[in-house]
Amino acid sequence: MKTLNSKRIINVTKILIDCSKRSKKFSFGFYGLLVFVFVGFILSPLAPFDPRIWNTAPRDRPPSLQYFLGTTSTGQDMFWLLCWSIRSSLTIGFVSGLVVVLLGVLIGLIAGFKGGLVDHIVMLVTDIFIVIPEMPIMILLVFLFHKMASLLFLSGVIALFTWARPLRQIRAQVLSLREREFINTAWFSGRNTFSIVLKEILPHLIPWILALVANFSLIAIGFEAGLAVIGLSLAQEATLGMLIYWVLQYNAIFRNIWWWFLPSIFAICFLFLVLFCLYSGVTDLITREV
Amino acid sequence: MCASVMNVIDLVAAYQTSERNIVVVDRLNLSLPKTGIIGIAGESGCGKTTLIKVLYGLIEPPLKVLSGDVLIRPDNENALSLLKMSEKEINRLRWRFFSYIPQASMSVLNPVMRIEDQFFDQMVGEKVGKSELRKQLSEYLNRMGLPHEVLRSYPHQLSGGMRQRVIIIMALLFQPRIIFADEPTTALDVVVQRGILEMMRDAQRSLKNLLVVVTHDMGMHYQISDFMVMMYSGKIVETGNAEEIFKDPLHPYTKMLISSLPRIGDKLKREGIKGSPPSFYNLPQGCRFHPRCPYAVPICRKEEPPVVNINNRSVSCHIIG
Amino acid sequence: METETPQSLLLKAENLTKVFRIGGIVLGTRLTAVDNVSFYLEHGKSKIMSIVGESGCGKTTLAKMMLRILEPTGGKILLEGRDIFKLKKKQEKWFKQTIQPIFQNPLEAFNPLIRVDDYLFNTATNLCDASNKEEAIKIVDESLSSVGLDLERVIGKFPREFSGGELQRMSVARALIPKPKIIIADEPVSNVDASIRMNIVNLFLDLKSKYNISFIYITHDLSTAYYISDLIAIMYRGSIVEYGSAEIVMTDPLHPYTETLLQAVPRIGEKWDGKIKLSGIEVKEFEATGCKFSFRCPYVKDSCRQKRPPLTALKDGREVACFRY
Lengths: 290, 321, 325
Hints:
The complex is a heterotrimer of chains A (290), B (321) and C (325). Chain A is mainly α. Chain A has helices spanning 6-22, 24-43, 78-114, 116-131, 134-144, 151-162, 164-178, 181-188, 193-229, 240-249, 258-289. Chain A contains 11 helices and no strands. In chain A, α6 (151-162) packs across α9. Chain B contains 10 helices and 12 strands. In chain B, α4 packs across α5 (160-173) and α5 (160-173) runs parallel beside α6. Chain B is globular and about 65 Å long. The mean pLDDT of chain B is 87. The mean pLDDT of chain C is 86. Chain C has an 8-stranded mixed sheet with strand order 6-7-8-3-9-10-12-11, with helices on both faces. A 4-stranded antiparallel sheet of chain C has the order 2-1-4-5, with helices on one face. Helix content of chain C is 34%, strand content 22%. In chain C, α5 (133-146) crosses α7 (164-176). In chain C, a hairpin with a 5-residue loop joins β11 and β12 (319-320). The chains are: A mainly alpha (290), B alpha/beta (321), C alpha/beta (325). Chains A and C meet through α8 and α9 of A and α4 and α7 of C.
């Protein structure tokens, strides 16, 4: 299996740098994401105290040397709060996105390659899930299981509703790859089904997997923000969606507390943009290769 | 040969990639006579399709002409440079001075217009009325063996063979001085193929213009070309009367290629040429054919061979002449 | 007609039919790509049999069925007496050791993301029971040298680092590794440059005599088919219309379609005389109830349109599907 040695890391880095050169979208998305990851995972643990706790700072103070982005109406240091929220949102996004795509790959490979009854059943189930209106049911679930709420629970709920789409995309790719001549050559070289799927088809899917993780992370973050704005996200957690929720609750826009609402809105929009560019850049590069 | 209808002078055409220019037609010189059927032969990657695109003025990125010129005589007198003309000026010449029949698998037909309307479209600006045009078209349709209903049909309702015949009619309609045909019969039924080739030959004989047929199929050249131009890796290696070339090929590549093709009726053992055509990324020094040539001598590896003219034929080889 | 029992035939195709449904179950139409085709290959001296026809005649579909890539709608294929569509799990390996393919497009035959030697080594390990790396290397090396290639030159490289001709040779080398009895080559030289086509065609002749491998050579190119084959089957719209020794069929064709084909193909050596008349009527020849060629046949009679002529055996071992015989 894959070994994580220095040669591999150097290879991967080379590929990433090459991709950034060839697609502006990709480089914008990739480096932008690195910035967010830095802020969320490297900066935020440096917070002097848990920024989620209210009233740790004087309220409504504009930006100053002491409070870089000022303070909120709930008595929180905006800068550290923002860092923490980015971390939470990224976590939800990645966990959801990764789970959903890996699941999609696993099932999509089997359904797409085997075909027949298995494929029909899988397609039926995915179609049902795609057609279900997500928001009302998510609202219901979160409302009912409100006690178990945690970041992971939220990621799980979001994953439940988004797993169908990447599966279809992966399956479509597998269907077209299955028809290619080299699959026949592989059969006649004595490879069995498992080996063909793993060694011949999967490598072609890797760029798609990356693109889909970017895309579905974005979707997950969006769902969380949607839930948050209507008050169904986790009040005790700090996510970008919750930031916006509290901004609205405290009427920060009309009260002109720009250091609270501007960075919040800007952060979430910019994160969306970055993830979208990453997704779009990778798909561009894939189609250009072809 | 008296004044030619098109002169290619030291043409260098290349494809631009992000790293460099890949030269696909390299300092090519060619003089096209006013009448006859010229066959441009060569394998995939020899540059013949690129050459035709340049000669028809279809120079779009990444294709670029790096140097050289293409001179034409649209009114039989003054030589004009095709490469210096604007797109608008070239458009005025299209279908009228020269026309182009693309590979059968592609189409110049507009999928959302009836065939008849596409012809009328071309006629905008001409002094011929619709009824006169319809009459001409009927005659052509008859000659091509196409039923009258074709005029009112859409392209997708016709088979590949019928579409190709319609395109040929379009190419012939204004009686242009040059008709370029690039692999005009690929993907077509064998019987339709012969019919189309014979028809194109008949049209050339009656219009007395120039038909340039580009194909890798040597059998096709044997059947219809009067004069042949053999290309290899971006260069012309031999030209001359087609019958003479088949009977007595001079250039080693032509000789070996023709003798490698099996004929029905004789079981003579045939050999291919060893090696493969060079990639344009990595061309050999000197004569491009030397790595595969059994007759290569030291100078072949160093210098590009000069063009030698012998009796209306020309060869580009060090050991001949 | 065979007087042999099925076991003594190497390959026997019996009444093979393949019908495709185009456009959905309710409103779609049926296309009979292969229509009741039968032929056989004997054991003993290896032969090259060509299946010749234009695009759309069903030859590629036939090849795919022989390789078990497609399942027939009717009929069966017997390889050394066994029905290839009813094989047990254990016999699948035997199948791949007996019959191997060479595909048309050498660039598509290999996965661009996988090194080419990977396929060769896999074939050696899986189908030849090479127990260790040295044995596998020996087998692969031997195979590569029979096609004129060098292991040193090939090892570790990806398909894009080779030319079309070289890749096609590697396809042949790979197919040779399990020492099959039959190789099915589907248009193996159509995508290869003209100057090196004969190198590969001659290679087939070489392998036939050296290793006693029979080839089924599928092509639309009459000249190479004539050059290489012992037997030839001419296909038209899904049916075999003429069958027999290549030499006789091509120099003295009986079926009107074979005649047409030979006259229409542009060949070096004989200039065309006379003219072909083209028609605009492109009819659904696949669905004809009578002879499929009746729409274009210069000798057509009324009886041709009503009944389909069966493939009749003639005295000299040939078979023709035409009412004139």
